[in-house]
Amino acid sequence: MITTHEDLTPFNTFGIKVHAASFARFSSVSELRTLLHGNAFKDLLILGGGSNVLFTKDVDALVLRNEIQGFEVQWEDNSFAYVKVGSGMVWHEFVLQCLELNLGGVENLSLIPGSVGASPMQNIGAYGVEIKDVFHSLEAYHIATGDIHTFDLDQCEFGYRESVFKRKLKGKYVIVAVTFRLSKHPKINSSYGAIDAELKKMGITQPSIQEISKAVIAIRSSKLPDPKVLGNAGSFFKNPVVDLEVMKKIKVTEPDVPNYPAEAGKCKLAAGWLIEKAGWKGFTEKTYGVHTLQALVLVNYGGSTGHEVYELSSRIIADVEMKFGVTLEREVNIL
Predict the structure, then answer these.
(1) What is the pTM of this model?
(2) Residue 298 or residue 193, greater confidence
(3) What CATH number does domain 231-334 carry, 1.20.1260.10, 3.40.1160.10, 3.90.78.10, 3.20.20.70?
(4) CATH of domain 3-66
(5) Which CATH class is domain 71-183?
(6) Is 249 helix (H, G, I), strand (E, B) or coil?
(7) pLDDT value at 302 more than 80
(8) Would you name the residues annotated as active-site residues?
(9) pLDDT tens digits, residue range 202-217?
């Protein structure tokens, strides 16, 4: 059923109050097909968990909430299990099901908000792991024809928080299922970030993937606000990749600048560190600001508009560029 002038506050983790011209939910491909080909619409917006979007105005479009579920081991061999998952499934619930089956590869991605379908769109990543590391294929509904097309790893053109669905195929497909290649003999990846330190605090020296997940959850919970309590979209900015010369220039005055290897002649800097050093951590204005524990996170304390949050992000970008010569890029989709 399609409703009109729907309040989208419950459907975005920032908790921004805007309205959709038209709104409906779908939990299967057949329902999606009926909605798209049985009704005329000007524009279309697919919403999953609403965890990577900032609404700055009402949405003059048909907004469809993806609620396709499903978790099935399609096939397996001695080393891997190939698990097909409905795109509307909550990402962390998918991770927990993998852990129950002792299937490794996504434990470092525990507690990331959002849906499974959004994960390949922006190649989500955390603590040394990205979707491309465990991705096998996906099925997507072609809006123009109603056909289901399958995309493999190469066809998705994954980059840093990028995929073909954010660029040349943006708005042309609806991802309906994702198949992951998960390890039956998991290799532990604990060296990135504070995982080793958290495991030591927990008294664990030979962690399982379940314990890696617990450590990641503890770290994320200590730094990142729960969207159910405080409106936010997680990390608002991408970690910038810069020329080594830029990093060396910063290092003259900031010798402790965190930096990580990237492609030849470049390195990745920590956006949160740059924002904090620029003095924005904990900044508050009216009903919005920068989180007190993590400078990467912009927050809605209640009642702020998306335009206000967007303007704050613009001020931060300009200030970081002025102080460090580094241009930050928003990770969150601005609508």
Answers:
(1) 0.83
(2) 298
(3) 3.90.78.10
(4) 3.30.43.10
(5) alpha beta
(6) helix
(7) yes
(8) 161, 235, 331
(9) 888 888 899 999 999 9
